[in-house]
Structures are given as C-alpha cells and as structure tokens.
Design goal:
The protein is of the alpha+beta class and 118 residues long. The chain has a single domain, classed as Roll (SH3 type barrels), CATH 2.30.30.100. It is 31% helix and 36% strand. The protein is built from 3 helices and 5 strands; from the N terminus they run αβββαββα. A 5-stranded antiparallel beta sheet has the order 4-3-2-1-5, with no helix packed on it. Strand 1 and strand 2 form a beta hairpin. The chain is elongated and about 60 Å long. It comes from Aspergillus caelatus.
C-alpha cells in the first residue's frame, strides 16, 4: 500500500467506531477522529474497558465455591465481567497501542462486502 492509499484508507475510517487495545490491557472503544505521524489516535465518545483485577477474580471464585461447596473451586468456571467507564475524548499514545480493530455493525459489513464485489 503506497502512502496515498494509506491516507485514503485512514480518511475512510474517520467517524467509524474503533477498538484500540493498549499495552496495559485496557481497551478503548470510540469514534475515530484523527491520528498523527507518531501514531497517536484521538477517539471521541470513548468507553474504557479494563479486565478484572486478581482480587475480583479471587472474590468471584470464593463466591462460586460458597454457593456449591461440593464442587471444588479448581473445577469451576468463574465468569467475571470487565469494568467500563465513559471517558469522552481521549488520546491514545501510539507507543502504547498493541492492536486496532474496526467495529462494524452487521449492516456495515454487508455493505463493505457488496462494494468489494462490484
């Protein structure tokens, strides 16, 4: 992909919802506004998601074991939800980005596939 194609692709993503993964395992989901040469990304209307900490997992495992002591904690699957908060406008530093995903609705995906075929 040459530079012109790369710029056009980035411009096509403006306003789209991106999921940006950071080195500290946080995930930011928001509307892509812009980027720069340092690969910093600005997202608007952003939510930050965090994986539960070890104490939250431990507490969930203890609660599950207390509910059914006949089943050992090691053999149980414990589900713990991610925490989230609304942070609005955010700059994600380029050096901390590990992965970027385009979040599409099923309708957007169908439109993209139709455009590829034509």
């Amino acid at each position: 992909m040459d530079e012109n194609q790369a710029v056009q692709y980035l411009e096509s993503l403006i306003g789209q919802t991106l999921r940006v993964h950071a080195t500290d395992t946080r995930i930011f989901v928001g509307a892509f506004k812009c980027t720069d040469s340092a690969r910093n990304i600005i997202l608007a209307s952003t939510y930050e998601y965090r994986f539960p900490g070890p104490s939250a997992v431990r507490d969930a495992a203890t609660d599950a074991e207390n509910q059914d002591p006949a089943i050992g904690a090691a053999s149980q699957n414990v589900q713990v939800n991610m925490t989230s908060r609304f942070i609005g406008l955010v700059v994600v530093p380029g050096q901390h980005i590990t992965k970027i995903e385009l979040e599409e609705t099923p309708q957007q995906s169908r439109v993209r596939e139709t455009l590829k075929k034509s």
